[in-house]
Amino acid sequence: MKIGTGLPNQVGNVRPEVIPAWARLADEAGFTSLTTVGRYAYPGVSDTVTLAAAAAVTSRIELLPGVLLGPTWPAPLLAKELAGIDGISGGRLTLGLGVGQRPDDFVAEGYGSKARGARFDRDLETFRDIWRGESVGGGSNPAVPSGTRQIPMLFGGFAPAALSRMAKWGEGYVGASVPAAMAGQGFEAARNAWKEAGREGSPRLVGLAYYALGDGEAGKANVHDYYYNPAYSEFADLVVSGVCDSPAKVKEAISAYSDLGADTLVFNTGTDDIDDLKRLAEIVF
Predict the structure, then answer these.
(1) Residues 183, 207 contacting (CB under 8 angstroms)
(2) Cα(281)–Cα(11) distance, integer angstroms
(3) CA nearest 58: which of 96, 84, 111, 19?
(4) Which of 35, 76, 136, 190 is deepest in the core (most CB within 10 A)?
């Protein structure tokens, strides 16, 4: 199982200047993937800006939004942004996508949360067309340079439609940031959807866990603040219960996700303290 780490783009009131240094250190330390977390109605840095910054200062590590809220964007614009990030990185982007749940994240006029699933299905077709170099805007020009590739996609979510999307369009599944026992249910559902769709082999399975090794209480508070929603407040408590705040808990998470058959486990950060990334690297490597 490969081990990745998250960028602190959605730690509340993150210091944006730490993001490039964080990405560079993760690349040098030996982590296999760099992830972002996606929300818009929150005081962080957007996925696309964060990934572009990471692409510019790294050379080998996979870039993996886990997950980007696709339907919050006009599809042609997002497709172009992602193609640019993938190109700058030398083809290191794997696109993690989800539909989103919080209405306040759908901030662009005309791109609300209503009917977002159906819109997302159309968007996926548009992504492929854009990356193939088809013309846009009613003219004859494509939106992307020649040689742009079809970016591999992973999908998150629990709904049957999300799993069907994964089996049709994707190369795998991104689990929720919950304790491993619950993430295993999502993995099994993804395997079943893959098989039912007649796909060969198995989907790539990516697990997500949070860590805060320096100031564990601050990290847990940040994670709770990010996930808190009055409509389902218990989910924030569930995510916090899985935060790894000691070397032993990091190792327990690695063991648990390995037993589940995860291909990659990503440790997302609860703080923007870059020393925490160093602590994680010492434990993992």
Answers:
(1) yes
(2) 20
(3) 19
(4) 35
| Cβ proximity of 219 and 212 under 8 Å | yes
Cα–Cα nearest to 218, from 4, 69, 14: 14
pLDDT at 229: 87
CA dist 60 and 20 (Å) reads: 15
Nearest Cα neighbor of 64 from 54, 72, 75 is 54
Using CA atoms, how far residue 3 sits from 46, 138, 262, 285, in Å, is 23, 44, 10, 10
Check: CB of residue 122 under 8 Å from CB of residue 88.
no
In this structure, the number of other CB atoms found within 10 A of the CB of residue 229 comes to: 12
- Look up residue 227 and give its two tokens: 């996930």
62-65 and 33-36 beta bridge pairing: parallel
Residue position matching structure tokens 């990290």: 219
The amino acid that residue 150 corresponds to is Q
Q: Does the pTM exceed 0.90?
A: yes
Number of H helices, E strands in the chain: 10, 9
Q: How far apart are CA 52 and CA 57, in angstroms?
A: 9
Q: Which two tokens stand for residue 9?
A: 């783009």
The residue-averaged pLDDT of 77-104 equals: 96
Cα–Cα distance for residue pair 38/45, rounded to 1 Å: 9
**Count of other CB atoms within 10 angstroms of residue 248:** 10
Please say whether the beta carbons of 20 and 67 come within 8 A: no
Examine residue 67 and say whether the peptide bond preceding it is cis (omega within 30 degrees of 0): yes
Give, in order, the Cα–Cα distances in Å from 236 to each of 55, 194, 225.
Answer: 31, 29, 8
Cβ–Cβ < 8 Å for 242, 178 = yes
Amino acid at 254: I
More confident residue, 198 or 232: 198
Q: Which whole number is the average pLDDT over 116-123?
A: 96
Rounded Cα gap, residues 270 and 272, in angstroms? 7
